[in-house]
What we know:
By secondary structure, the chain is mainly β. It has one helix at residues 85-98; strands at residues 6-18, 23-35, 41-46, 60-65, 76-78. The chain has a five-stranded antiparallel sheet. Strand 2 (23-35) and strand 3 form a beta hairpin. The chain is globular.
Amino acid sequence: MSNAEKVYLGRIISSQMLGSKGHMSATLKVAEKYRGAVFDLEEVVQRNSSCSLYFTLNEEYLVFEGRNGEVNQCSMRNTQHFRDLENQLKALRAIAKLGI
């Protein structure tokens, strides 16, 4: 969390390819904000790499956004793949409340 510019929970409402190099962008509707200057709608970008991520419409993601809105499969996780999601979110809420 300390390495992220923004941390939030959001649902993908659109995505698109950016050019021919495998870069993609996605727009998320933010449900909860934990760190940084997070807007109600956020746009993220992922570069084509070994950590590339496929954005799934209408899926909810926990996002640890880097500089310039960059994410990858390590920093943006589909909430369906979290064990004990509610406790994870409870911990993030507590950290956000402390302002860490």
